[in-house]
Amino acid sequence: MADEHTTHPVRAGEPPVAALVDFRTGFFRCLTGWADAAFELCDASLCAPAPVTSVPTLSLEPAFCRSHGSLYKALSLGRVDHEGMRDLLVVHRPTTWPAVFAVDASTWARCDAETS
Predict the structure, then answer these.
(1) What is the C-alpha to C-alpha distance for residues 18 and 9, in angstroms, rounded to an integer?
(2) How many CB atoms lie within 10 A of CB 91?
C-alpha cells in the first residue's frame, strides 16, 4: 500500500519518536496548497492548552508561526490528498487494534412512498 505519500509501515519495536516523525512526514505530503500553513494550523490545534472554540485564535498559538492571513488562506486554498491520507492512516494503524468498519445506516425520508 505504500506509495509516494507514505513511508515504511510501523514495525514492532520501532521507537515511538521515529514512528511519529514518519507519520508527520507522510501527513505533510498529503497536504497540497498552502501545506506549510495547514500543517502549522494542525499543530496549533493539537498544542492548544484548551478546546479550540475559535479558529482565528489558533493564529495566536506559538505552534503557528505565520500571520493570521495565512490561516485563512490555508483553510480556503489548502487541500488534502484523501487517498494518500487513507493510505497513511492504514500504514500507521497499530496492528493490535481490532478491525473497525463504518456503516452508514441513516434513513432517507420518502414522504410520498406507500411503503419504505
Answers:
(1) 11
(2) 19
